[in-house]
Write a structure and sequence with these properties.
The protein is α+β, with helices and mostly antiparallel strands and 75 residues long. The chain is built from 2 helices and 2 strands; from the N terminus they run ααββ. It is elongated.
């Protein structure tokens, strides 16, 4: 089974028309995030939205004592 692309996800989840999807297409950019590199770091501001098409993302943080914990894995 093929993993849906971000384009598929937005179209299907939002019920967007073909015309709206054509308008959105130039704004959608595929970016590979190498293993060990962060998509965004704690404290950074971003206006980007991420969608995992292939691989695994880990959302993690640290508690008030500095102990790391995993919030979520996304595939």
């Amino acid at each position: 089974m093929r993993t849906p692309t971000f384009h598929d996800f937005v179209r299907d989840a939002g019920g967007l028309s073909a015309e709206t999807m054509r308008e959105l297409a130039p704004l959608i950019e595929m970016r590979r995030v190498p293993r060990g590199e962060a998509f965004v770091r704690s404290g950074e501001l971003t206006n980007e939205l991420g969608y995992v098409e292939d691989g695994l993302f880990k959302l993690h943080g640290k508690d008030s004592h500095g102990k790391p914990f995993v919030v979520e894995f996304t595939t």
